[in-house]
Amino acid sequence: MVSSVSAPPSSSSTPSFTLPTKTSPGTGSVSFPRARESRKCGARMATVRAEAVDTTISPRVSALRPSKTMAITDQATALRQAGVPVIGLAAGEPDFDTPTVIAEAGMNAIRDGATRYTPNAGTLELRKAICKKLQEENGLSYTPDQVLVSNGAKQCITQAVLAVCSPGDEVLIPAPYWVSYPEMARLAGATPVILPTSISDNYLLRPESLASVINENSRILILCSPSNPTGSVYPKELLEEIAAIVRKHPRLLVLSDEIYEHIIYQPAKHTSFASLPGMWERTLTVNGFSKAFAMTGWRLGYLAAPKHFVSACGKIQSQYTSGASSISQKAGLAALNLGYAGGEAVSTMVKAFQERRDYLVRSFGELSGVKISEPQGAFYLFIDFSSYYGSEVEGFGTIKDSESLCMFLLEKAQGCTCPWGCIWR
Prior knowledge:
Helices cover 35% and strands 13% of the residues.
């Protein structure tokens, strides 16, 4: 609430301040000297009453929901620091250390004095390396001025949405989705439009569902493959069907989130949406180093797109954060030099992820009533436990909500009440 301030009596000779002859201590008033009005007036003191501060927040920010991923992760971290043996499963973060070669490149950057600002768009050597990677691995041709290096892929996506969306535009988001996509749309004044998918379709967007919602306000379609949180991978044939629909709508752009590109399991193959006929001009491709190279804390990602889109995103970045960390960029260069798709260092991690996937799919598959779409990429398992709601379990009670379901599954899996339950309480 904003406090009202009483205006002084209207008079051309009356100053806009209360002018007492003496300020009593303890009144809550603040005194300060005024400029001399004339030699006859001498020095005078003016007093301004202390009023309540306007604590109003921008409606756009007030409507923004905090990231549940970060909230749960922060809570798990706090519990761990308090001595509770919590295993955090909220953030999409590999449990591997950054490969040694990459870490050493970062340390060498510090030793060699590479600790100053870089160009806003990123160092030229890193952008050239990204262009080479995109050409060799994705069949995409870009020049360095069509690449923007940012503080993580998350910043790239946010800036892309801000750069191309206006109030009233719509951002099309297949569900299940990463929790930040709708909030990024809202931050830009756009409306998120959620497109449901089905486990029977492996949580992949059906072309007819997309076609049914597109209108003159549709501005961006966000595709994430491999998907967070389902691990689904879009086959090239399905992407071509989606591209055929997109091609009919000149205003519609595609933001292709490819951050999990290298964490993929045979026989699935990754296809960059921009590589499809006619899609390069209208696709904003986002990728980064966090997932495949286990570099989440280095905060390094990039956007590749036609120059006018990249320039607009660069303009936002120049006012938000400026360029990414010089040290992280040196490490990122080393990551790209590991070889095709990250070389042996990445393939070793992917092999471990696949073994874990196979174990969990097999284990959860032994539970009656559980439905699973086996992930073909990323490191998530999106499971349908809906058949359990409302059921009575001997020795446990009624499963009535997500918390009781979580506790039941953890007890069944481990034979005890796991401290993870603290997070849900």
